Structures are given as C-alpha cells and as structure tokens.
Fold:
Amino acid sequence: MSDCNQRIIAPSLLASDWGKVGEEIKRAEEAGADWLHLDVMDGHFVDNISFGPQFVASVRPHTELPLDVHLMIERPDHYLDRFVKAGSDRITVHVEAQHDVGKTLGAIREAGCGCGLALNPATPFDDVIPFLDQIDLLLVMTVVPGFGGQAFMETETMPKVSAGREFREEHGLSYHIEVDGGIDATTVHIAGQNGANVMVAGTSLFKAPDMAEATKQMRG
Structure:
C-alpha cells in the first residue's frame, strides 16, 4: 500500500469526453495522473445515473493506472462482483447505503481489491468510526454527491478530514484520505492542510486549458 501522506491525483472520468474515452485516459496519464476515479451512480442512492460495470470494463484495457471505483449506489453488496470482474483495483462504498457495511468491506478485501468507505457532507464522522480499521481509504465527499461541477463545502467537510487524520494517527492505521467534489488549484491545498492526500478532480482537470499544468498545480 502506498504512503498515506503521499499526494495522489485521481482525475474523475465523469468529467471526460466519453465519446473518446481511450484518448481521454491517455491525456490524463500524460498529464501525470496517479489513479483514475470512476463515479458509479444508480439513480436511487443519488439523483443521477452515470455508468455501470461495463464502462469500467471498457476503461480497463486502456490503462495500467489503478482504477478507483466509487459506488454511489443503494446496494453495493449486490453489484460488487460485477465491478470486481470489470477490473476495479479499489472499490469504495457508502456508509449510508442499504447494506451490511462491515460485510461488504470484507467481501471487497476478499476479492483482492483495496476497500474504501465514503461519507456524505451531511453524515456525522461517528458513523464511519466502527469501520476505520477495516479500510484502505476514507472518502470524504466535499459536495453533495450526484453531479459534477459543484462548489467545495469547506465548513461541512474539512472537520471530518481532520478527524479522519487524527483517528488514523491515534490508532496507528494507514488508510488514505480522499476528497471528491469541487477540487481545484485552490481547494486542493485546503484539503491537503486538513489531512487529505488523494485528490479527485473532474472539471478542473479535464476542462483545463492545459491538463498537465493543472495536475502539477494540484500536486503543489
């Protein structure tokens, strides 16, 4: 497992041009991406529909970068195997979804994938505490999930990032802390100062005039 203090830039394919996804992946790689982030939405857990396991499978042959798959879906336990077979390297599920969280995390690990746990801006940090010793990654959503291009919710979310870092240090754990939503050249540093090391960015990277320069700025 890579160092949880090392900054990792994970462009979100949600903001890419899906009509030429192979070229977009190559562009992200050449710009210096460390991981690729894939946001899966089912229209139930969040009020939007994005893509499913087939899209993840279609991305896999184009890259050797780790595929960081974020399941914003109501029943992650039910669909898990399909995302494993599609070639996910890391699968993150939500603490708020309808499933036995501990059991799902165990199943992800058993399948040989890194396992992550996400919480929404309105969810108290206490809800994830029982599971923090079972994960490789804690994802603090910095916007209300469902749509790209929203503003970063600093007040609601940064205390959770800090709490995640403090808990990790106090208990000798080694999970990454990831942020997703409204991450750009400014907010990336706010998130970093609070303890996040994995930065998911969609619009601010794929729509930047120069993706390589935007990635470099995020890396600080």
